[in-house]
Design a protein that fits this description.
Elements (H helix, E strand, L loop, with lengths): L1 H61 L5 E5 L5 E7 L2 E8 L2 E8 L10 E5 L2 E8 L2 E7 L5 E7 L6 E2 L2
Parallel strand pairs: 1-9
Antiparallel strand pairs: 1-2, 2-3, 3-4, 4-5, 6-7, 7-8
């Protein structure tokens, strides 16, 4: 009888250790998935906030009246142009990258110009009123951000 009691105790301890092991592995896997999803979400949010703040800061930095215009690139995509004396800063989307190019006024800018700033899926500039510009950007993961910018201008210039 004593021998049988020890066998049951051993089976109970092994079963309890097995359940503990399975629960531990389950919690580790769930925690790793939760962490990976949180990091991915934070990176996506950071990227889309960076795009919105980039345009806000660039327009505020320019700060001169009647120095902002919208124009079209050769491929039909939109570009935001900030005039600053003899130079222009072009911001546009090409090859999934937000690009910035600083050129002498009158230079023909193509999609190959500029330095990549960050990855975006889409970018849209939309004049809302004479001095209000809506910038809509989508991250590569599809998160959309929209910012309305008040321009220090009497009229937003739109060139074809």
């Amino acid at each position: 009888m004593e021998h049988r009691k020890h066998k049951i105790d051993l089976i109970f301890i092994v079963t309890l250790a097995g359940i503990f092991f399975i629960c531990s592995i389950t919690f580790i896997v769930l925690g790793a998935n939760f962490y990976a999803n949180t990091v991915s979400s934070n990176q996506d949010s950071f990227q889309i906030r960076t795009a919105s703040l980039y345009f806000t800061q660039k327009i505020r930095q320019n700060g001169k009246p009647d120095s902002v215009q919208l124009t079209s690139m050769k491929d039909g995509s939109q570009a935001l142009v900030l005039k600053n004396g003899d130079y222009e800063t072009w911001m546009f989307l090409a090859d999934g990258q937000l690009k910035e190019a600083s050129v002498k006024q009158g230079t023909t800018v193509t999609e190959s110009f500029g330095q990549p700033v960050l990855s975006l899926r889409s970018l849209k500039f939309e004049p809302r009123k004479s001095n209000l510009l809506r910038v809509t950007a989508a991250s590569p993961e599809g998160t959309v951000s929209q910012v309305d910018l008040l321009l220090r201008t009497s009229q937003l210039e739109v060139r074809p």
